[in-house]
Amino acid sequence: MSARCAGRPERMTGERPRTALSRTPFVLYLIRDGTVEMDIGENLEWIAHAMLDAEMRLLCDMPPITDSKVPLRVLTADNISEVGNPADASMGYGDAYVEGYRTLWKMAK
């Protein structure tokens, strides 16, 4: 699904830039071909780690997490190559969170 950006100057064609949300794979291809200007993406694997951490805390009677610190990333033609081709859902965010959660959970590799 695309949206039109409010408050942005119109292009020479009279159209406003097209944007998207949620890192849908076909939208990443549209960024590559110039049809879509940007997408706000998230790393689903990082979200899964954060959700598991939040649930485990509740099961252990620990205080709930109020901000999981899962990042969003603006993807444009300038950085679209960092997500791979074809796009990989976990590329472009780094992988330090994996070791961070392993350390937090005291898990061996």
What does this structure look like?
The structure is a single chain. This protein has helices at residues 25-32, 44-59, 96-104, and strands spanning 3-4, 18-21, 38-42, 72-76. Strand 2, helix 1 and strand 3 form a beta-alpha-beta unit. The longest helix is centred in the middle third of the chain and has 16 residues, at 44-59. It has a four-stranded mixed β-sheet. The chain has 109 residues and is of the alpha+beta class. 30% of the residues lie in helices and 15% in strands.
- Main β-sheet: number of strands, strand sense, barrel status? 4 strands, mixed
Mean pLDDT: 85
Q: For the record, what CATH class applies?
A: Alpha Beta
CATH topology: Rossmann fold
Distance between the termini: 40 Å
Low-confidence stretches: 1-12
Order of helices and strands: EEHEHEH
Beta-strand portion reads 5-15%
Share in helix: 25-40%
**Tally of strands:** 4
Radius of gyration: 18 Å
Rough outline = elongated
CATH architecture field: 3-Layer(aba) Sandwich
